[in-house]
Automatic annotation (TrEMBL), chains A, B:
Leader peptide range in chain numbering: 1-21
Transmembrane spans: none
Domain of life: Bacteria
InterPro entries per UniProt: AB_hydrolase_fold, Esterase-like, Ig-like_fold, Ig_E-set, Mycobacterial_A85_antigen
Pfam families: Esterase (PF00756)
GO molecular function list: acyltransferase activity, transferring groups other than amino-acyl groups
Record's keyword terms, sorted: Signal
Protein name: Esterase
Length: 388, 388
């Protein structure tokens, strides 16, 4: 018995080593990431989705590639250049950074993206379905930066406005509008940047799969001004008020929108899904379409929802919700960690109990990341503004 | 004599030390730079224009602040946080980076800007005249990102288009256009980013000092596709052809422009000044206004220009040039290094010899940097499109 256990242990150990050895041996088909800075050879990605980073740091003692919550030691060559690679990453876009002798810094090889509360490096693992957000020879809409002063927050704010191809010349046409929000520790650059919202719509419109629409991407952080200087109290969010009484009137005055609830949609990812669900349920006279990408307003709870009390009973009359909302859409990645599957699952159970019609989409093999949200927008946008 | 020299040497040394000590003692009124990432306390700038950077790098041996061509050693505290400051910098915007044990990386405290051939850190030294590019409660135009396929280069290219306040709603109005180019190792993000072209025009238009105009900011690097893969031959620039046969027709088709030469201007900074001077002189049927900010087409030569041969004799008939060009404008910073003052000076001598009318502006106390070019645009834009 003792011998058997010893042999078993050795077998397990050697099998483990074998797996480790195989894991660390990367297939040598690395290519520069598509979001590298012009002319930069590194970082690179191989067909397994491994990321290989490289940086010159001749005097450094320890350089690490920090991606997906794991720090991978890099190795220095005789010229002082450090190289190292990660385990395979999921398809799509990821934030990451380098650690040089304890300093966390962006990799100077990549373009920079705002997420995780900072402007930092990004990497693109080519996805099998990347065609839907590829830059193609189709008519391209504009993404316009709009700066405005917000009286409610007493601050200058900014949104990006996608106008579809033909908007500038078809001056008699008016368009429906999707208000599309980012997640926590992200900002208004997320959807037009790593989210590729403009390219997703350009391609869908070229294929006649989506109605030409305007998309407004604003910043979900908006606070009352007098709270900003008071360190003892939690800042009071006025994002809903900014959306309803500042952003929408400004967009309706400045762009050729269709001025009714049937032609307005609101959607968001994660924190944005939570925020926008509250906004539509409080303002059913303003919007008739909702999209929740990897989030719902019961977050982070996975407990059973009581529709009589949840969001002040806004889902209590299921028939009325069905009458008022044209598209109620939820999406989630199959690899998302808790509490997302639990809280979205509890929310879906409530919808089903109430007889509320909704669409549910699962993004295969993606986590709480941008590939889930690109796919969600791609699916969601095709359903919008098609009911009369 | 020996003693005298020794005493003199000691005196000089101690005086030098005194100067060094004074130089290194900064006035303690540092404030976070206005182009820091949200919530980041460093880098900071004081009233002398010194930059103080800070980064945690507990295991590092040497960390330096690398700005204005000088590397300043930073000092580590007991928590492993490095802090250090530069000598006073000129007013305005500067690119910079950190060096951590030999690795050149962006400072994670700042937003990132494209210049010097990379996306990297930037710092803003508050200028005495910063009001003219400040974000104010005035009507704001849009800055629109326009992606397009360029047959000449067989590539996707991008420009940013500023449309003035009122453009979206005054649909009967047509506007003049300024084509505005960046410098070498910069790109189409320079003018709408660190150049603040949109804010400069928003403010000028609000004060009725400039005519409402469209500004098109494209990328000055454009090469024939077959040259890209051939390492032995120098890539052939086709930027002029792209400007004339791709960009301008696209802008005229998509935006409400005034379709004649009197209502088109072209300007650029440094490399862009050189490029755009060639473009206007080769295409006087297309443009009637020129702006050269810190550059001319005789760059880098300071030699006397022979108008009979320079640019194929385009300046040989001064009277004709005066008839054809409404505004011929040149600008330079008083602290610019050679060859800029020499080559611009030689060019001005040629203009004067030929009797060609031009405006010359000097930006006080600025070098070959963005504060010179912000001021140049501010001065230049006020003169445009005012002749009948």
């Amino acid at each position: 018995m003792k011998h058997f256990l010893l042999i078993l242990a050795l077998f397990v150990l050697s099998a483990t080593n074998l797996v480790l050895a195989q894991t660390s041996k990367a297939i040598e088909d690395f290519k520069p990431s598509e979001v590298n800075q012009p002319g930069k050879a590194f970082p690179q990605v191989n067909s397994e989705g491994r990321v290989r980073a490289q940086i010159s740091a001749p005097e450094a003692k320890l350089v690490q590639l920090d991606i997906g919550g794991v720090k991978y030691d890099m190795v220095k060559d005789e010229d002082g250049v450090w190289t190292g690679e990660s385990a395979p990453q999921d398809e799509g876009f990821h934030y990451y950074q380098l650690n040089i002798d304890g300093a966390s810094v962006p990799d100077p090889g990549t373009k920079f993206f705002y997420g995780a509360g900072r402007w930092g490096s990004g990497i693109e693992i080519p996805a099998h379905d990347r065609d839907f957000y590829a830059m193609k020879e189709v008519p391209h809409g504009l993404v316009s930066e709009l700066n405005y002063f917000s009286p409610l927050t007493q601050s200058f704010r900014r949104c990006f406005v996608y106008t579809p191809p033909g908007y500038e010349t078809s001056t008699d046409q008016r368009y429906p509008v999707l208000y599309l929000q980012h997640g926590s520790f992200e900002d208004e650059t997320g959807w037009p940047g790593q989210g590729k919202a403009n390219l997703i719509l350009d391609n869908l419109i070229a294929e006649k799969k989506a109605v030409p629409m305007i998309i407004v991407m604003d910043n979900g952080y908006a606070y009352e001004p007098h709270e900003n200087s008071d360190g003892n109290s939690r800042p009071v969010s006025v994002f809903e008020e900014v959306m309803i009484s500042e952003i929408i009137p400004m967009i309706d005055a400045r762009f050729r929108t269709i001025l009714d609830r049937k032609h307005r949609a609101i959607a968001g990812l994660s924190m944005g899904a939570n925020q926008t669900m509250r906004i539509i349920m409080n303002n059913l006279g303003v919007f008739s379409n909702y999209g929740g990408f990897s989030g719902t307003s019961n977050y982070p709870s996975s407990s059973e929802i009581d529709p009589a009390t949840f969001l002040d009973g806004k889902f209590d009359d299921g028939k009325k919700v069905n009458e008022q909302i044209d598209v109620f859409w939820l999406g989630l990645g199959t690899k998302e960690p808790e509490p997302f599957p639990g809280s979205v699952g509890a929310f879906r159970k409530m919808l089903e109990k109430q007889g509320i019609e909704y669409v549910y989409y699962e993004s295969p093999e993606t986590a709480h990341e941008w590939q889930t949200w690109r796919r969600s927008l791609h699916e969601y946008a095709q359903r919008l503004f098609k009911k009369n």
